[in-house]
Structures are given as C-alpha cells and as structure tokens.
Amino acid sequence: MSPVEFWTVVLSGALALCAPIVIAGLGEIFLERTGGFNVGIEGMMLVGAVFGVLGAHVGGVWVGVLAGILAGLVLGLLMGVASAIAKADIVIVGIAIGLLGAGLSVFLFQALNPAGSTNQTVETQPPLHLPFIEGIPVIGPGLAHAGTFFYLSLLLVVLSWLVLDHTRFGLRLRAVGDDESVARTRGISPTGFRLVAAVIAGGFAGLAGATVPLASIGTFSPGMTGGAGFVALAVVIIGRRNPFGLIAGALLFSFFNSLALLAQTQSLGLPVELFQALPYLATLVVLCVVSRRVWRRSRVARRASTSSTSPTPSTSPEPEGAR
C-alpha cells in the first residue's frame, strides 16, 4: 500500500467513525448551555443502539433511527425530571442512568438473542455515492463514501448552531446557564429549560447510539459504543461547546481511531496496542492543553476584576499647621 493510499484509507475511516461522536456531542452542548453535564451519554447510546437494531428489524433503517431517538428521549426525560424538578445532583443522576442504560441494553440483547442463537442482523444505512467529489486527492474518496449518517451529522451541526446562537430559545438556554437568578427575573423558567435541554440531550444520544450498529455492522453487541459517550464529553470541552468546534475534536479522535483499526491489518512497525491507545491519549493531551488555556484566561480575568474593584488610596488633606 502506497503512502497516498494509506492516508486515504485512514481519512475515509475517520469520516465514517466521527458521526456518533458529533451527534452525541451536540446533545451535550444543549445541556451544558443550561449549566448541566451528562455523564450518562454512554448508557443512553447503548440503549439507542439496541432499540435501533430492534426498530430496524421491524421496519427498516429509519424506523430503527426513530426507535433509538425515542429510547434516548425517555432516558433524557428521566434525567431531566430527577435533576431539574427533583433537584438531585445531575452527575449522580447521570451515573445512574449510564449504569441503567448499559444494564438494560445487555438484558434486551440476551432476551432477544438467547445463548447459542445467531445475532439478529438488520439492513444498514442506505448507500450514498457522490462521484463529483471522489476525484479530490486523499480526502475525496472518504467524502464520497462517508455515508448518510455522516452528512446527517453535518446537517445537525448547522441546525444546532442556528438554534443555539440565532434563536430566542438558544439565547434563553444560555441565560439559564449564565445566571439562574437573572434568568428568573426576566421571566425564564430555569427548571423548564433544563428539563427540555435534558430531553434534547437524551434524543441526540439515542440517535448517536442507533447510528453505531446501523452504519455498517447491522447487529448489536454489548458495549459496542466503546466509550464514545465519554469521548463526546471530552470533545465538547475541546470544541469549547461550539457545534463547529465539536466537528474538529471528533475528527481528531476518529482519525487516530481509524489509524488504530488499520494497524490491526497492516504491519506499521509498532505494537497494535499502542495504536489502540492513541485515540484516547490524543484526546487527553488536547483536553489538558485546552483546559490549561481556559484556566489561564480565567486567572487573568480574576486578576483584572480584582484590580478594578480594589479601593484606590485616598489622599489625606494637608495638616493646617504645615501650611
């Protein structure tokens, strides 16, 4: 395999692998705009994956996609009720939902596929061939065969950006996250918007989970998301909670993940285990760099605010006898 062919295969794999991370990260951005944090994305994705396969078995790919979204919406509603209405700690709620989703997916898998039986295989995403961009060097073949879910994720990025930054709903979400008391004085219900944001996050996570088996595998296996939910959390931070920054972070992780998968079939001169660790190592390094920059900026801002609010020394009047 020539170097050009090698990197063409790597980039093609990266484009195909990034869609679930991008979709799950979009839901997390909605939630974090209200001050929330969903550590249960992985469990929601697993439930979305198993219901995606069930729905596709009944009515095809798009029924499976809808079933995954509905499953995620239910878990998102559960998280929103527990955190926004019952005032439970959202991190604890997320952990509980993550464990619930992981356990529920395994239970449904074992119930539908008893020991000794063959896994159910369903049809996958409809083929999408774009010959007019296939001729672009290196990246063209990957873009031409990236699949329907990849371009669906790009469409969702644009729509999410428009909603978050150019609609009254998005501005109110940000107002709730910036200052709850100020939002309440302006007639905005923090509880209601946090509940809606949690439901939206659950729907995105369910959709992301459904795209994992319906992209190319066509069947469900326990733990098949491989930590993509936790990667989505990190990628949202790397992308500074911006939908377009999210794409860059997801492509970075997917690039190293594609390289690790290719290393299993090609002799690259290094242990395969090292390449398998590269995606997570690269995400960790970039996350540390971004967090360091944010910390420095917040430190400078605190110093500036402290210096501006500190009292200026007053000049005492000159004693009368000294004149």
UniProtKB/TrEMBL annotation:
Transmembrane segments: 6-27, 39-56, 62-83, 90-112, 143-164, 193-214, 220-239, 246-265, 277-295
Stored CDD domains: TM_PBP1_transp_TpRbsC_like
Chief subcellular location: membrane
Bilayer topology: Multi-pass membrane protein
One Pfam short name: BPD_transp_2
InterPro entries in the record: ABC_transp_permease (IPR001851)
Molecular function terms, GO-annotated: transmembrane transporter activity
UniProt region (Disordered), positions on chain: 301-323
Protein name: Simple sugar transport system permease protein
